[in-house]
Each structure stands twice: as structure tokens, then as C-alpha cells.
């Protein structure tokens, strides 16, 4: 498992002739946030600017220090590949809010976690806005994402999947019916709180009596 940011600034090398072709600047992901689709290399042109990229299918190896590609002619652009304009860059996701269908804010996107094939496995949070298990794990499984969000809109997650992962007490409703994210509390913790409260009350009564 690797964070997409781990690929920023990696040297691109052609295995056909050993040439160093440049460095990566960002990762591209498909619009549904399922898999890596390529690498953002940069932009060129003064008037009709185009985005230079490498497709994932032209990558031979996602190395620790280098990205190996098939040959020196792997560069393309979003004018030759209009569908690439729909791809998401990691920078597009950075800072995006994560919410429940009821509008409860859970956290802020910081990165995505990829497996060795480039498939998106989890959403890594840079900030967690609730207490409990999510604050400890700080990652949301990709399967829990209902809507990635567009143009800066929040990312929405599936409560059923979240509760399966973190426990049924993950989301409660307050008196107004609004969702609230909480940490599940077991019976032992509740009992301790009740006992402490009783003891404090008895101590207060004794003080008044005296």
C-alpha cells in the first residue's frame, strides 16, 4: 500500500533506451476514484495550453525511486486524449470535506491509498472532525464512498459501510434528528460513568450535611 503523494517527483525512465524523461508532478485518478489512470507531467503552450501526461497502461513498474515506462514516446496530452480532462488529480481531492448523507462532517481528504496495481483502497484523512474509531484510524475504505464530489463539493460516504467498519454506535441522532458522529461506548464505560456520578453526588450531600 502506498499513498499517491509517494509518486510525486519520481524520475521517469524509459526501459527501451534507458533515457530519463522527466519527473512526475501528480497522480491522475479516474472520475469514480477507483484506480490510478496516469501521471501528470506538466503543461505547455502559451495560448492553447495543453496538459502533458502519461497513461497508466504505459507504465511498466511503479518503483520506489523511479517510474519505468515502455519507451520514450509515452507522453501524450489532453488534446489527443479528451477523456483525460475528466480525470481527477490528487491535488483536486486535497482539502475536500467528507460528509455523511445527513451532512455530518467527518473529516478532510489528505490523500488516497493505492495498492500495488494502482487501485484505490482507502481515503486518507488529513484532519478528522469527529471523535472515536475514525479519529484513530484516519482512513475511510473506498467501498464506503457514495459520491466523490465534483468541483470542490464534499465527498459523501455510506453510513452502513462505516458502521460495519467502526461499530453500530458510529452515528447517532440528536434530539432534532440530525446525525452526530460519536465513539461507540461499551456498557463497562457507561457503568463507570454512572458510578462516578453517584459517588460525586453522595460526596456533595455529605459536605452539605456537615
Pick out its properties:
five-stranded antiparallel β-sheet, 4 helices, alpha+beta, 18 strands, 2 domains, SH3 type barrels
Query: What does the largest sheet look like?
Result: 7 strands, mixed
Runs in which pLDDT lies below 50 for 5 or more consecutive residues are 173-178, 183-199, 201-210
The SSE order reads: EEEEEEEEEEHEEEHEEEHEEH
- CATH third-level topology of the largest domain: SH3 type barrels
Counting DSSP E segments of at least 2 residues, the number of strands comes to 18
Strand content: 35-45%
CATH architecture of the largest domain, by name, is Roll
| Overall number of domains | 2
User: Count the helices. How many?
Assistant: 4
CATH superfamily of the largest domain: PRC-barrel domain
The whole-angstrom Rg is 24 Å
Mean pLDDT: 81
In whole angstroms, how far apart are the ends? Answer: 64 Å
Shape: elongated
How much helix, percentage-wise, in residues?
10-25%
Structural class: alpha+beta
Give the class-level CATH name of the largest domain.
Answer: Mainly Beta
Task: Please explain how this structure is put together.
The chain has about 210 residues and is of the alpha+beta class. The chain folds into two domains: about 1-90, PRC-barrel domain (SH3 type barrels, Roll); about 95-180, SH3 type barrels (Roll). Helices cover about 20% and strands about 40% of the residues. It has helices at about 90-95, 135, 160-165, 185-210, and strands at about 1-5, 10-15, 20-25, 25-30, 35-45, 50-55, 60, 65-70, 75, 90, 95-100, 105-115, 120-130, 140, 145, 155, 170-175, 180. The strands form four sheets. Strands 1, 11, 12, 13, 14, 15 and 16 form a seven-stranded mixed β-sheet that branches. The chain is elongated, with a radius of gyration of 24 Å.
Amino acid at each position: 500500500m502506498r499513498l499517491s503523494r509517494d509518486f510525486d517527483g519520481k524520475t521517469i525512465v524509459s526501459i527501451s533506451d534507458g533515457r530519463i524523461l522527466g519527473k512526475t508532478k501528480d497522480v491522475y485518478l479516474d472520475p469514480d476514484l477507483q484506480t490510478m489512470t496516469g501521471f501528470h507531467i506538466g503543461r505547455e503552450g502559451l495560448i492553447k495550453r495543453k496538459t502533458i501526461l502519461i497513461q497508466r497502461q504505459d507504465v511498466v513498474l511503479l518503483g520506489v525511486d523511479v517510474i519505468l515506462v515502455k519507451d520514450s514516446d509515452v507522453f501524450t496530452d489532453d488534446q489527443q486524449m479528451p477523456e483525460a480532462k475528466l480525470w481527477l488529480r490528487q491535488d483536486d481531492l486535497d482539502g475536500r470535506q467528507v460528509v455523511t448523507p445527513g451532512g455530518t462532517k467527518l473529516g478532510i481528504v489528505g490523500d488516497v491509498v493505492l495498492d500495488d496495481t494502482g487501485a484505490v483502497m482507502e481515503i486518507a484523512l488529513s484532519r478528522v472532525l469527529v471523535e472515536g474509531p475514525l479519529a484513530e484510524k484516519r482512513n475511510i475504505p473506498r467501498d464506503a464512498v457514495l459520491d466523490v464530489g465534483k468541483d470542490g463539493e464534499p465527498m459523501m460516504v455510506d453510513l452502513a459501510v462505516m458502521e460495519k467498519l467502526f461499530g453500530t454506535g458510529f452515528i447517532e441522532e440528536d434530539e432534532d434528528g440530525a446525525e452526530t458522529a460519536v465513539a461507540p461506548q461499551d456498557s463497562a464505560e457507561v457503568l463507570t460513568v454512572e458510578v462516578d456520578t453517584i459517588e460525586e453526588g453522595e460526596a456533595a450531600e455529605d459536605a452539605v450535611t456537615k
